[in-house]
Structure of Exonuclease SbcC:
Amino acid sequence: MIPISLTLEGLYSYQDRQTISFDTLIEAGLFGIFGKVGSGKSSLLEAISFALYGETERLNAKDNRAYNMMNLKSNRSIIDFEFYNFEEKKYRVFREFKRNSKRFEDVKRTEAVFYEWTDEKWKPLDHVNAEEIVGLSYENFKRTIIIPQGKFKEFIELGGTARTKMMQELFGLERYDLADKVRRLYLSNKESLDRLEGSLQAYEITTVEHIKESERIWQEEATKYEQQSKLFVFENELLQQLKVVKETFEEFLKLQVKLESLEGLEPSILREEEDLALYERVEKNFRQALSEFKNIEERKAKFEKDRQLANDFCQQYEKELQEATLLLQQWEPAYKNIESDKKQVFELGLIATITRAQEEIAKCVSRLEKGEPLVKQCQEGIDVVEKSLLSKRNELKEKKSKRISTAVLLEVGQWFSEKNRLETQVIHEREKCNATQEKIKGITAERNIYELEEKTWRESLNDKSNLLKKKEEQLVQQKNQLEVAQQLSQYTSALHDGVACPLCGSLEHPHIANHGDVSEELMKNQQELQNHKVLMDAHTKVEREMESISERIRLYEVQYNELIESVKKLEVQLEVHNKLFSWGDFNKDDEVGYQTTRTAAALLEKEVETLENSIEIEQENKEKLEKKKELFEKELDKIRKEELEWQMQIQAFQKQLDVLKWEDYKTQTAVEIEESRAFLEANIQNIEKEYQKALTDIADLQPKLASQKALLEKIRVDSELLQQQRESLEHKVNSLLEVEGFGTINEVEDILKKTINTVESRSRIQTFKIELGTLRNGVQTLKEKLAITNYDEAVFKNQESKVKELELSVKQTGERSIQLKTTLDRLKEEFERKKELLLEQDRLQKRAANIQVMSNMFKASGFVNYVSAIYLKNLCERANTRFHRLTKNQLSLQLNESNDFEILDYLNNGKTRSVKTLSGGQSFQVSLSLALALAESVQSLSKSNRNFFFIDEGFGTQDSESVDIVFETLQNLHKENRIVGIISHVEELQERIPVSLTVIKDPEKGSVIQKSYEL
């Protein structure tokens, strides 16, 4: 996680809104947050943790957290935090508290809102799960990213179970917790094995012997089936021949019966044929004539109905036409005078308009009388403002002539600021030089304890080291010789004739060597080796101490030379800066005089600004008055123009009067004139309406009446023609009746009423004739066949019985053969299946053994603990790279058999001791080393280019030398692209970290953040 910005308001000691942009701090790589105890430094980290997780170290939910976190002088608390997560995605979280205006202790906490930066805007998320976004739980966040006060040593002091759980969460070790998966594998395999054993029980009798016996029985039954089948085929052929004869005889009897039945129906079919012929002849000759008779009668009835309807319409239209003609005669005189009335309507409209125009002219005169005094009043105000402006402009001109250039004042001020900065830096650098000299003297005194020459100490120690190594080699060689002698002595004492020699294998031992007992010499040699090891360890310790001392002296000498060079450069810069002073109105040694002049210039600037503002206001007032005057004048001109337009309109309308006179209507109002005009106009419209209606009605009725009269004439003509057609048709029908031999038309109608289906009847008659002929031919043919072959029912029955018995026997034998063959095939399949099941059983049993091995390995999170131990060992190795340097190779961190941390103390022969025995400063050193290693390991999983880490304690427990080493360690982290933030009240650290924030607690404003890079 990389922070972008943090905004606080009303939180703890932060009363006013404070915003931190981390861009410059992140760019520096190593930065600090400094301030006195209680200034509010740690509150910044707590705000970040609370913004993300809603949790704090100081307070929990039961502590009325919202009230206690809010500043007592504030009514609202805000935390607004922006950051990049491990995926380089930009997020923002916003939290807010509000105090109840009626109850001071009641502080409501609103829900947090998380945002993601997408498409160049903040998009709110539908959850507040910081762990999903950051990739760490709250507990692990405060162990790897932001370590709050009092929690720095927590990781070291965690128990084994808690530490394993933490490693599991941080590094995703749950993927190694396979116990549940192994258990499921075991159960699944056991279930398969049980199911397989149950399946094998069904195949216990399935053996090779059983299969061979079943195959023998099947072969015997199959041979029997083949013999019976051949006999059945022969006898069945004889039966089939008898069946043919029987079927022929039976067919003859059946056809004979059917023929007799049809011959009985033949007379009725012949009668039906005669009726059909009569029906078809009558329908052909009379059906069309009867249809035409019916059509003529229907048309005759319709003509009569149409004639009556047309006659009624003629009477109605004649009556309406008489009424419309009478109305037209009544309205015609009034309609002839209508143009004169319209002229009066037009002139009444002109007179009404003239009357309204005179009323508008009166209004214009009244408005002019009110507006002219207002214009005069505005002009007087303008004159007063112009006099005031003239006076103030003269005063402003006089004050501006006394001004000093702001650019000059700014340049002189910058010159004095730079001079003070350089002088302060020179003093600080000289103090650092003196402090570094003192440190070099102190370290030199440590070196003098070992009484070694400054230039030759390394050669002296190397010579001594070589002597000690040679001595050790001699002792080891002596030990090897003694051990060989002791072993040979044991061999010789065990040699006896007839027993093989363990070295050469011989059974005879004529010359056995005599080796004395060397146990005492061997013990003496071992003691000398132990004593020599103590000497070598002590020598190694001296070498390490001298290397450390030499390196420290070298570093401080380099630092001293750099400081001396820095002082010289600053003095040169100061000298050059003094030469740059070129302002004759000021003295470079009199900064107080400059400040006095600057203050006076500032007062003069305020007076000028006040006058300019006053002039600007006066000018605005003048412009407002001028605009107001211009507005009034425009309005008066508009009124005068309007009055003139009304006068011209009156003159124009009076000239248009012809029928009426204006003088007759002077006493009437425009409303009264309009009412007269409206009445006259309504009367004209009514006359026009009634006259036009009468004309329209006459024009509509005349063609309608003519149309109906024409229709009556057409109906009369059509009726006469229809009567002629009817008479002609009657003559034609009478002639046909006489020809066909019918007395009346009723006889014909009775025949046609039968509605015979001629097609169906003819088809039925034809089918009967064909069927009768076919039967007669069939009976004759069968008679001829039966005359050749005789049919004997007894012989047929006997053969049929014999074939049925053979068929049953063949069927039973075949079924037994099929059953036996099916059983045999099933036994063979089961035997193959049994072999497959036995192979699968063997595989599952081997798998069960392997799963048991895995179960033992993963039981009780054993494998997770094993992997966790590997991660912890790697963590120790990473931490020791820094811890060794911080402790000058005196201490080392390792894991014991219980996976708990312990210390290797090289000052005490590399013996181990508990981490709880470390001093406060040493605890900080090992905690810092572990925390840095843990943060690197966890953050490396995110594959981020930059990693962030915050430390909030511990530097106060370190001496100045340890602080130097810690500071150097932190600087190296910056080179490794690590970003480290430090919270401390140690002033020495603040001097070494150029980019920092300083938190100052103001009695009135609360905590205020100052930025070193903006001062």
Notes: The longest strand covers residues 90-99. The chain has a mean pLDDT of 80.
